[in-house]
């Protein structure tokens, strides 16, 4: 063989290979990014797109049709943005990012503003978003990969996902599972940014959903000492400054803001105390109220004490989105439990914190963290 | 711009290659060289254009000074040389070591001098070294060539600009002016593509996989159990090798596309059976520089045993600080200096160890010393190191529980083995796989030497390249960009 022939053959197979793989990935579309070709036997049931949160959401927000933005962690992600639309007389995009810190939230907020005429911000702010030990580089890798583009407000496209080995694996998996009738329903992001737990909804209908195991797994995921979401919790002044910047930006640019601390299953609230982070948890609220009044849904109340209102310790089921937003938007037309959500300002913060502390119940955290049969989930 | 990015592979490289050879084909040699220089400067400026004046200043200054050193002047050459070296070291010192120096002043004298928020110009350690060597050789009268374009390409040639290999002017400058190298050479392109594919795969498929566990172990986890600590240190040991040797393979491959041969930089270093052999196989162009421009000028081994030991220590302390402005780097250099001294003593007494034992000690010393090289803080290094030798916290896989109940006590538990570093059974598989590669496989340079035109090499490199390209969306920087 001559060098020229070797090279020609190399480039020939490379071109064929790369376009074949990208073509297959585009047509089968295992993450439902384009939904252009749907074949019942091959790709009706897709894999989850939650592995590409940043790319998916930044790309969707480019459409420019939204006047309202939802920010926060995955607790906000489970909230249906459609219920907000009547309050804001427009369209809402749920730009919640799992486990995100306020720096990331601030930057995607500015990115969204660049492409949309945002007039309202519904901000579900979380304790985990102020953890100094959560770094952008390590804990928000999806954002970190796109950081430069997000900061420069460059348009973000999904084409590279088609030129990807992992996508090819998913393509083959989706095809085989659809062909053999073994495809599973998976949770996905909807085009409006909401995280749709259709997998859990299906399991619930089939009677196979194990809420207790789900709760324990999430407790482990949050509180595991080395790699949990709350790992080595230290309240970050730097992250607080990012939150302040977002609120101040809204005030200067006439963007209406609603801030709330999302509800969590009461075990999670008790586990914060058991883990020794409660002082930081209170500090977080004290610092927050210096910047803005907020509605606090944490603690023990008629919604948070019922585990069947949640998919796990953090994510409220979709049917409670209306209730939650009715409280946030002070909508009295909807009957809501009076103990669900407390409006907090600088005058009542201390009394509110005292009330919450009185609600704390004993919780055996170490038993869950050390149980090897409970898996720790990845975000 | 990174070698492992879409921009580089699909735009910068093909465009530069085609225009360069179009110009040489049209016999526009000066223009082609000028174009190569501009492309390299563009490549360099891609990260941050503010770095550009620094490298330009350094290049013009050293070129002019080199000429002055070669002609008779009213100023004595030695003073000019000292001036040149000091200017280079001041530039490096200001950008790389100023804050380190100030931090230490603040600690020792309880001062509060403000640190400057300085971005370290990329590759400053590399181009400074290369040009200091150029000045020294100009002073010694070893340089005859005065062509500025060749010199400028020697300093900025994009395949080796950012992280080496550290090239010597005498092996590079004549290659840029050789007319044979200005024609497309399909043999070099095939070889270049072959070795580039191997390097790309090493970086993307192997180094970046180990990086996840190493980063979690060093930077994130606050405590580690025994196996996690070993997995952390070994992951970094392999990450560093596959990352840096992968980068070097890519650099050698890219240079070959332009008919330029770069020196070999790695020769299976983890096969070494003593520390001296390790340094003959690891970052060989740095070892060459340290030997020729530090160790030998200090007197080498010509001035008695104790002076030889002192020279070794000085050379490796400088090697440590060259890698980074921090005491952990100095300590890493100190460890290697001490190890080389012990090796000399050992050799003088003509002691010998069995092959396997010698390898075991050498590899473990290197693995342990990398902990100080990697750790951002002393505490991180101590965390990993102490956990590697603590027997009171061992976690084994759950499936062993029934078979090994006799082990069950306060020190040994069964659960997820690498949980704190986000690892799983793949961590173990990758570590075993890496040991097999470094010990039993030929290295990429040996593969390149044996390269022949057949379907085996074609599909081998095609698979590596395709796999790497299809894994590119997680673009990550090379470790040696930090040095």
Describe, in plain words, how this protein is organized in 3D.
- The complex is a heterodimer of chains A (379) and B (483).
- Chain A has 379 residues and is of the alpha/beta class.
- Chain A has 17 helices and 8 strands.
- In chain A, the strands form 2 sheets. Chain A has a 6-stranded mixed sheet with strand order 2-1-3-6-7-8. A two-stranded antiparallel ribbon of chain A has the order 4-5.
- Chain B folds into 2 domains: 6-183, no CATH class; 198-273 and 353-482, no CATH class.
- Chain B contains 19 helices and 2 strands.
- Rg measurement of chain B, Å: 24 Å
CATH topology of chain A: Rossmann fold
Report the strand count of chain B. Answer: 2
In spatial order, strands of the major sheet of chain B run: 1-2
Taken in chain order, the helices and strands of chain A follow as HHEHHEHEHHHHEEHHHEHHEHEHH
CATH architecture descriptor name of chain A: 3-Layer(aba) Sandwich
**What share of residues are in beta strands of chain B?**
under 5%
Largest sheet composition of chain B: 2 strands, parallel
What is the domain total for the residues of chain B?
A: 2
Sum up the overall morphology of chain A in one term: globular
Q: CATH top level of chain A?
A: Alpha Beta
What's the structural domain tally of chain A? 1
Tell me the number of helical segments of chain B per DSSP (H or I, 4 or more residues long). 19
- Rg of chain A over CA atoms, rounded to whole Å, is 22 Å
Largest interface: A-B, 35 and 40 residues
């Amino acid at each position: 063989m001559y060098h020229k022939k070797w090279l020609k053959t190399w480039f020939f197979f490379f071109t064929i290979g790369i376009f074949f793989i990208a073509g297959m990935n585009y047509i089968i579309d295992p993450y439902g990014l384009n939904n252009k070709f749907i074949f019942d036997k091959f790709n009706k049931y897709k894999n989850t797109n939650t592995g590409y949160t940043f790319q998916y959401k930044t790309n969707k927000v480019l459409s420019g049709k939204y006047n309202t933005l939802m920010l926060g962690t995955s607790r906000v992600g489970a909230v249906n943005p459609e219920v907000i639309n009547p309050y804001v007389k427009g369209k809402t995009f749920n730009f919640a990012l799992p486990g995100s810190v306020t720096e990331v939230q601030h930057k995607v907020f500015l990115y969204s503003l660049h492409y949309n005429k945002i007039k309202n911000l519904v901000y579900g702010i979380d304790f985990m978003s102020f953890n100094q030990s959560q770094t952008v580089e390590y804990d928000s890798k999806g954002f970190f990969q796109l950081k430069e583009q997000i900061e420069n407000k460059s348009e973000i496209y999904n084409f590279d996902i088609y030129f990807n080995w992992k996508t090819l694996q998913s393509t083959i998996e989706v095809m085989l599972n659809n062909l053999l009738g073994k495809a599973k329903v998976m949770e996905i992001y909807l085009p409006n940014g909401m995280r749709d737990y259709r997998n859990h909804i299906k399991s619930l209908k089939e009677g196979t959903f194990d809420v207790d195991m789900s709760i324990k797994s999430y407790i482990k995921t949050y509180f595991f000492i080395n790699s949990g979401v709350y790992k080595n919790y230290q309240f970050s002044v730097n992250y607080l400054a990012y939150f302040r910047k977002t609120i101040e930006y809204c005030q200067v640019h006439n963007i209406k803001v609603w801030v709330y601390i999302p509800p969590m299953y009461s075990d999670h609230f008790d586990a914060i105390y058991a883990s020794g982070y409660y002082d930081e948890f209170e500090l977080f609220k004290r610092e927050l109220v210096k910047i803005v009044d907020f509605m606090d849904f944490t603690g023990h109340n008629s919604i948070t004490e019922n585990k069947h209102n949640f998919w796990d310790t953090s994510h409220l089921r979709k049917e409670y989105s209306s209730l939650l937003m009715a409280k946030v938007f002070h909508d009295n037309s909807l009957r809501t439990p009076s103990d669900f959500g407390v409006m907090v300002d600088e005058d009542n913060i201390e009394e509110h914190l005292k009330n919450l502390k009185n609600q704390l119940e004993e919780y055996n955290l170490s038993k869950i963290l050390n149980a090897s049969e409970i898996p720790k989930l990845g975000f | 711009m990174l070698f492992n990015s879409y921009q580089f592979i699909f735009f910068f490289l093909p465009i530069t290659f085609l225009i360069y050879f179009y110009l040489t084909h049209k016999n526009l040699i000066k223009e082609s060289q000028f174009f190569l220089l501009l492309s390299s400067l563009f490549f360099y400026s891609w990260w941050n254009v503010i770095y550009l004046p620094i490298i330009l200043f350094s290049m013009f200054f050293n070129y002019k000074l080199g000429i002055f050193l070669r002609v008779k002047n009213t100023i004595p050459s030695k003073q000019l040389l000292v001036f040149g070296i000091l200017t280079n070291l001041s530039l490096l010192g200001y950008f790389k070591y100023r804050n380190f120096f100030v931090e230490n002043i603040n600690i020792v004298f309880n001062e509060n001098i403000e640190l400057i928020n300085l971005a370290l110009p990329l590759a400053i350690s590399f181009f400074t070294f290369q040009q200091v060597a150029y000045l020294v050789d100009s002073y010694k009268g070893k340089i005859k060539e005065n062509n500025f374009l060749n010199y400028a390409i020697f300093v900025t040639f994009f395949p080796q600009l950012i992280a080496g290999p550290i090239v010597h002017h005498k092996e590079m400058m004549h290659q840029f002016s050789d007319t044979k190298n200005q024609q497309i050479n399909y043999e070099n392109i095939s070889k270049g593509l072959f070795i580039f594919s191997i390097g790309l795969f090493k970086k993307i498929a192997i180094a970046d996989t180990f990086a996840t566990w190493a980063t979690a172990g060093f930077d994130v986890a606050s405590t580690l159990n025994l196996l996690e600590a070993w997995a952390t240190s070994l992951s970094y040991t392999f990450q560093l090798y596959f990352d840096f040797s992968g980068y070097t393979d890519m650099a050698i491959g890219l240079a070959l596309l332009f008919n330029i041969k770069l020196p070999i930089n790695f020769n299976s270093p983890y096969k070494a059976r003593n520390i001296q052999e390790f340094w003959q196989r690891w970052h060989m162009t740095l070892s060459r520089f340290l030997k020729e421009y530090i160790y030998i000028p200090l007197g080498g081994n010509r001035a008695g045993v104790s002076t030889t030991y002192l020279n070794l220590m000085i050379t490796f302390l400088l090697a440590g600080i060259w890698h980074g402005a921090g005491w952990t780097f100095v300590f890493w250099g100190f460890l290697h200096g001490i190890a080389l001294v012990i090796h000399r003593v050992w050799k003088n007494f003509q002691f010998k160890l069995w092959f396997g034992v010698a390898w075991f000690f050498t590899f473990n010393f290197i693995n342990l010393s990398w902990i100080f090289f990697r750790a951002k803080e002393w505490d991180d290094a101590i965390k990993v190191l102490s956990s590697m030798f603590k027997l009171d916290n061992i976690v084994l896989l759950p499936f062993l529980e029934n078979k090994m109940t006799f082990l069950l006590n306060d020190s040994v538990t069964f659960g997820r083995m690498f949980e704190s570093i986000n690892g799983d059974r793949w961590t173990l598989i990758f570590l075993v796989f890496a040991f097999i590669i470094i010990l039993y496989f030929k290295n990429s340079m040996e593969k390149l030497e044996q390269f022949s035109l057949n379907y085996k090499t074609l599909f081998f490199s095609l698979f590596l390249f395709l796999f790497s390209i299809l894994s590119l969306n997680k673009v990550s920087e090379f470790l040696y960009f930090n040095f």
